[in-house]
Amino acid sequence: MTKTSRRNRFRLKLLRALRPWHRRLGLASALFILLLVFTGVAINHSDDFGLDQTPVTQSWLLDYYGIPAPAHVAQFSALDKRNLPALYITDNLLWQGKQVIFEGPQTLISASYAANMLVAMDNNQLYLFDSAGHLQETQNSSTGLPAGLLALAVVDGRVWLKTDSGVYQADEQLIDWQPTVPLKPLSWLMPNPQVNAEFIQHARSAHLNWQRVMLDLHSGRLFGALTVWLWDLFALALLLVSLSGFWIWLRQKPPR
Predict the structure, then answer these.
(1) Where does the sequence pass through the membrane (predicted)?
(2) Which one-letter DSSP state was computed for residue 182?
(3) Does residue 239 lie in a domain region?
(4) Cβ neighbours of residue 230 closer than 8 Å, sequence gap 6 or more
(5) Which residues, including other chains, have CB under 8 Å from residue 168's CB and lie 6 or more apart?
(6) CB neighbours (10 Å) of residue 120?
(7) 194 and 83 within one domain
């Protein structure tokens, strides 16, 4: 047997061995490519699809990301008959309807509409907003606000505060706070006993959008650190498919 015939037989055996692995790797890689194409297009057109503005509402996916329901939830309705959206508090977030308008440094206690503004507070600070929900001013002890805030009341458009040191009333501009004794008991704002379950899910969803999910799925991080290595193996499989396909084509190419 000549040296050329032995070489041809070796090439033939190698071709027979490569073809089934080429097909298997190609099929596995095809699924990976489809996933990359789908998520890549979604990421590139995230603004067009509104993925960065679309919250994830699926409970199982929120659970998978470890996003719990807010620990502190309170709902405050408008005191007058104006058609104003309800105010919600979830931990340190203040919502006007279903729109987050403020994120505070600590858990918020109470919120209410007062005249042509919106008032919210935590234990140490008072936050003043315009009627559209834009923060206008923050008051604390350095601006003359009493410390140890406990409760909020709005009577005839005037704001009252219950504190560790007593009851205080603000002037009409909410600049000066004076200790006082109300002539009659005040109705301190209390949250509604039942908060809409749909809103609680909405508040939870605000921490995750579909753009983040697409990015994690595209990179392989959605399924944990080990999946990143699996994605690397798929990339290696694509390289092997390309090299083996080129070699098969080269060896089967008819001579000129």
Answers:
(1) 228-250
(2) -
(3) yes
(4) 220, 223
(5) 146, 160, 161, 177, 178, 179, 180
(6) 23
(7) yes
Beta carbons within 10 angstroms of residue 198's beta carbon: 10
Hey, is 128 helix, strand or coil?
strand
Question: What gap in Å lies between CA 251 and CA 243, rounded to an integer?
Answer: 12
Is 60 part of a structural domain of the chain? no
CATH code at position 200: 2.130.10.10
Task: Tokens 């090439």: give the residue.
Answer: 11
Residues 196 and 236 grouped into a single domain: no
Each of the 256 residues of the chain gets a pLDDT tens digit; together they read 455 565 556 555 555 555 565 566 566 666 667 777 777 778 788 888 888 888 888 888 888 888 888 888 888 876 655 678 889 999 999 999 888 999 999 999 999 988 788 999 999 999 999 988 899 999 999 988 998 999 999 888 789 999 998 999 988 888 889 998 887 888 898 888 777 778 888 888 888 888 988 888 877 776 666 666 666 666 666 666 566 565 555 555 555 4
Whether residue 170 sits in one domain with residue 137? yes
Element at 152 (helix H, strand E): strand 149-155
- Side chain identity, residue 42: A
> In terms of Cα–Cα distance, which of 192, 206, 209, 208 is closest to 73?
192
Residue 124 lies in a domain: yes
Q: What is the largest CA-CA distance in the chain?
A: 117
Does residue 107 sit within a domain? yes
Q: In terms of domains, do 125 and 143 share one?
A: yes
Long-range contacts of range 21-30, CB-CB < 8 Å, 24 or more positions apart? 21/244, 22/241, 22/244, 22/245, 22/248, 25/237, 25/240, 25/241, 25/244, 26/241, 26/245, 28/234, 28/237, 29/234, 29/237, 29/238, 29/241
Task: Give the count of domains, the chain.
Answer: 2
* Domain co-membership, 134 together with 38: no
